[in-house]
């Protein structure tokens, strides 16, 4: 958020003043997706953090949403009026989480915890649309879009990274060749999905295929609203 404040100052210097900058920003589309690392690198990393013993999954989701609200209100006060909030994907299906549990498939307990966050995020969108008459927010149901997508879009390798990953970071080791089946792999490394899935998710976020892909509308309709 500090970097965004710097950006606003630069815009203000370019177009005249901060009032003009805020007016300009009110016409911009803000895309926000935060929360994944709070689960992957905090709640489900008990050897480094005590959050999973301190909070139940529902309490943790509530705490994250409160912090999310604080950040959104800062953006709103800076001039943001059109915001797209992306829910979290099925984090229990990423290779690093599967490797920590005795299961060859998705970890249901993690996906259930993430769904608590997503449900609260959707409710936050509804609440802020009522509370902030000048703002328009939408929620993108990433988990629902992605959960059944891989097989339908031609992906075949779901729980193995495409590149050789570091045992300490889970990221691709620099200089190593990626897999030759990268058009079939769901994940590049232990965390990040491939371009195919990202493009598919973006397409359904822009123009929803199913009614529950986006709420209350999709990006294509949000950008047309005055």
From TrEMBL:
Pfam families from the UniProt entry: Lipase_GDSL
Keywords: Hydrolase, Lipid degradation, Lipid metabolism, Secreted, Signal
Superkingdom of source: Eukaryota
Molecular-function GO term, any one: hydrolase activity, acting on ester bonds
InterPro entries: GDSL (IPR001087), GDSL_esterase/lipase (IPR051238), SGNH_hydro_sf (IPR036514)
Gene Ontology CC terms, in alphabetical order: extracellular region
UniProt subcellular location: Secreted
Entry-linked Gene3D superfamilies: SGNH hydrolase
Keyword Secreted: yes
Keyword Lipid metabolism among record annotations: yes
Entry's Gene Ontology BP terms: lipid catabolic process
Protein family membership: Belongs to the 'GDSL' lipolytic enzyme family.
Protein's name according to its UniProt entry: DH200=94 genomic scaffold, scaffold_5451
Organism: Coffea canephora (Robusta coffee)
């Amino acid at each position: 958020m500090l970097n965004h404040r710097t950006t606003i100052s630069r815009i203000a210097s370019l177009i005249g003043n901060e009032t003009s900058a805020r007016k300009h920003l009110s016409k911009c589309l803000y895309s926000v997706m935060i929360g994944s690392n709070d689960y992957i690198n905090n709640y489900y990393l008990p050897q480094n953090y005590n959050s999973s013993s301190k909070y139940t999954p529902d309490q943790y989701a509530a705490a994250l949403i409160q912090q999310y609200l604080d950040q959104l209100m800062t953006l709103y006060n800076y001039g943001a009026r059109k915001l797209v909030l992306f829910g979290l994907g099925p984090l229990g299906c990423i290779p690093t989480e599967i490797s920590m549990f005795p299961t060859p498939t998705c970890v249901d307990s993690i996906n259930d915890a993430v769904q608590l966050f997503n449900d609260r995020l959707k409710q936050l969108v509804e609440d802020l649309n009522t509370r902030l008459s000048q703002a328009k927010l939408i929620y993108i149901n990433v988990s629902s879009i992605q959960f059944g997508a891989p097989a339908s879009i031609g992906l075949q390798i779901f729980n193995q990274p495409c590149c050789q990953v570091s045992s300490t970071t889970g990221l691709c080791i620099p200089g190593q060749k990626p897999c030759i089946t990268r058009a079939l792999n769901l994940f590049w490394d232990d965390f990040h999905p491939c371009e195919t899935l990202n493009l598919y998710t973006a397409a359904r976020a822009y123009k929803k295929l199913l009614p529950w892909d986006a709420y209350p509308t999709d990006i294509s309709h949000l950008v047309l609203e005055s």
